[in-house]
Inverse folding.
């Protein structure tokens, strides 16, 4: 997926993988199909049967499932490569696309890869993606802020971030623990009130930012 790849050439999702088993498959496929529809990619009627009969290439503990516009399904393994918490972070301009594509996991992924490279070049672990004065996402993760009043905040999807599967799984547990949960613009003012900042995602799992 390079700079010349059309946005709608494919759609993908990445799942945790262990010895042929994956986590939260139903949730990932539901999002994958929703993103495919937004990008105008036809969803094969036999998708799940073909997925079950496909063999992944590579090695690792993450499995990317990619559906191309021509109906091809590809499974690629890679490894998550994060150090133990706490992680370090740097801000980076959030990638922007058309309204239809923004927030989907599409083929033109180079700007997100560039954000990761910028973080690595800065000697940190994570890039926090900023647009219009607010953190809207993270590279390969979703930030959650816990403020001084004990309220948890995650970026609203209106800012252009990806709807996180990991966050959707954790949100009920956060609320069950008695922590109010809100979606909001993570502005500099709100960040200044943070007592903790964590990131969640398929690769990073759950980690806090130093």
């Amino acid at each position: 997926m390079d700079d010349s790849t059309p946005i709608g050439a494919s759609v993908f999702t990445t799942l945790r993988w262990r010895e042929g088993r994956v986590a939260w498959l139903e949730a990932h496929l539901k999002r994958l199909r929703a993103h495919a529809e937004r990008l105008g990619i036809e969803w094969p009627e036999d998708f799940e049967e073909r997925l079950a009969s496909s063999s992944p290439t590579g090695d690792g503990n993450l499995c990317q499932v990619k559906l191309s516009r021509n109906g091809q399904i590809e499974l690629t393994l890679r490894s998550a490569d994060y150090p133990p918490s706490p992680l370090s972070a740097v801000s980076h301009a959030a990638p922007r696309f058309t309204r239809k594509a923004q927030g989907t996991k599409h083929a033109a992924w180079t700007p997100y890869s560039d954000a990761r490279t910028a973080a690595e070049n800065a000697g940190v672990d994570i890039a926090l993606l900023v647009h219009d004065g607010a953190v809207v996402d993270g590279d390969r993760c979703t930030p959650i802020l816990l403020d001084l009043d004990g309220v948890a905040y995650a970026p609203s999807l209106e800012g252009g971030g990806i709807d996180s599967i990991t966050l959707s799984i954790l949100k009920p547990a956060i609320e069950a623990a008695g922590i109010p949960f809100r979606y909001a613009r993570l502005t500099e003012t709100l960040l200044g009130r943070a007592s903790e900042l964590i990131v969640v995602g398929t690769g990073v799992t759950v980690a806090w930012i130093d």
